[in-house]
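Take one record.
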Amino acid sequence: MTRISILPPDRVSLETNGYYQMSAATWGIVSNLIMIMGHCPQVTKTLVPFANSFIFFPIRGSRLDRNLRELIINKVSLYNQSHYSITHHTLIALNSGVDPQKLLHIKDRQNSIFSERERLALHYAELASADSNAVEDAFFSELKKHFSDQEIVEMTTIIGHFNLLNRWFNALHVEDEPDFVKLYYARVPPELQTSISYYRPTTTKTYNQKYDLTRPRLKDDTVRVPPVEPTDLAARNDFDTLSSYTLAKLTWRAGEINDPNAFDRVPNLIKTWGHCPEIARTLVPFVNSFLFNEDSTIDRGLKELAVNVVGRLNKTYYTTSAHELYAQTFGRIDRKQLDDLENWQSSTLFTDIQKLVIEYSIAVSLNSNEVTDELFGRIRNRFTEAETVELTLLICHFQLATRFINLMKIQVEAFRR
């Protein structure tokens, strides 16, 4: 059973229902994804344009065709054992014209049925999902022989986004819609069908897995994809993307934290997404809807603790260097707490609710299929349904962001070093 209640169209505002219908026009149904996200209307109205920018609608100038996108999505979802994503994107892939034999053999990327580009993309999806810090430069050089910088940014975003969605679906036990199940069994060949019954974990303590919450270290790596500077956008009259750069500056307030003279500098993360203007324009409002949302009822300090946990688990210095500052400046998290984060279980510096958020962040990040009923019950005892949806999305989003940063080897801006 889905752990969060479904909000059908007649239980949401007219504005939110409008975004429900926008998703239905793209996906064919008002999905449980959207009807659960409906608990957070500010997210619903930004998620649909963001996801559409790289999943369903081709990015200007991209040769990353729809079939390859669906193969990547299916590969990541199989790796993360995300039931909802696997069933839905098996059907979506077939409807898009993907050869059923390719879906059948997707675990064997060396199969001759795949082109060289497809084999590389599937290998990249697997490596990036397993450990985004372990993708070697030699492999990336081979990737760049077959894909442009824009296509690599786009492909990396797809991989990261489904590491986000897979975990969100798994942690919240999102189930298939009854009408979808009928379509699935009618359209998907028996050999491709997966069980509609939902996997139930038996693990009692998710944090018993090995993990490392030590601070990541600054590494002066060679950037794999150069950032797109504001002057480049101005030269091609792309003022829409320039406006998203400005929104990122104003929202993230980087200069206000450290160097007052740095306020006009755009984060390198956003400038790397500048290779895909459609993503850059929709990403910032999407992230703002749950990370910097002033109407959120979740304490900012709890959010920053969750972000720092994910940043440390994935060894992303770019993320932790920024969000340790945010935690102290906006979240009222003490520096001593950050210093003792790796000892959170035995530390006396954290409150019970802070420890709960840390534990949940670890569980969702390590294996979202093993977020037990007991742990989720404790989350629901402390957070409303809307807060639970928002907190889970926040944790999962940083699976996208940290992977993207690690894979692109985005460097920390000079003013933050």
Q: What stands out?
A: The CA atoms of residues 171 and 373 lie 10 Å apart. The first helix runs from residue 14 to 27.
